[in-house]
Design goal:
This protein has 138 residues and is of the alpha/beta class. It has a single domain (2-137), classed as Cytidine Deaminase, domain 2 (3-Layer(aba) Sandwich). Helices cover 24% and strands 37% of the residues. The protein has 3 helices and 7 strands. The chain has helices at 7-20, 58-70, 91-96; strands spanning 2-6, 26-32, 40-44, 73-82, 103-108, 118-125, 128-137. A 7-stranded mixed β-sheet has the order 1-7-6-5-4-2-3. The chain is globular and about 40 Å long. It starts with a strand and ends with a strand. The relative contact order is 0.22.
Length: 138
């Protein structure tokens, strides 16, 4: 599998990760049901306000699912940042991965690679992590 994502979305995720540092940032990218197209980015609030963990606000998550249903969309990408570790899913990330059809994007802004970043995508299905290619479009 390959995640096809626009440069604008990549830039927005990276900017959010830098703005919310040292806490992890999080959000989703939505698209029409069945299309697999990442078309609408929705930044979410990390209610954990933690540099090592992210959690969507349950009220925001409920509103998101209602919005997705109303607009005939689906979650195409779930993203978050790692502030001090590589862009690879943690045990917690794997345990909470509940959208088998989603691409799980991780961006790392850890100090030893700054000002560079890592931007990687994975599929996480039944606890199995598979890295996938990322194709960035203009």
């Amino acid at each position: 599998m390959t995640l096809v994502i626009s440069r604008a979305f990549v830039d927005a995720i990276v900017e959010q990760s830098r703005a919310e540092y040292p806490d992890e940032c999080c959000g989703v990218i939505l698209g029409p049901v069945g299309s697999g197209k990442a078309e609408r980015l929705k930044a979410m609030v990390n209610v954990a306000h933690s540099p090592t963990f992210y959690e969507f606000d349950p009220k925001d998550l409920l509103a998101l699912y209602r919005e997705v249903d109303d607009r005939d969309e689906e979650i195409v990408v779930i993203y978050h940042s790692h502030t001090e570790t590589e862009a690879y899913p943690s045990r917690t990330d794997i345990a909470y991965a509940g959208e088998p059809g989603a691409h799980y994007v991780l961006v790392s802004s850890r100090k030893e690679i700054a000002p560079a970043i890592e931007f990687r995508s994975y599929r996480i299905i039944d606890g199995v992590v598979t890295e996938e290619e990322v194709s960035i479009t203009d």
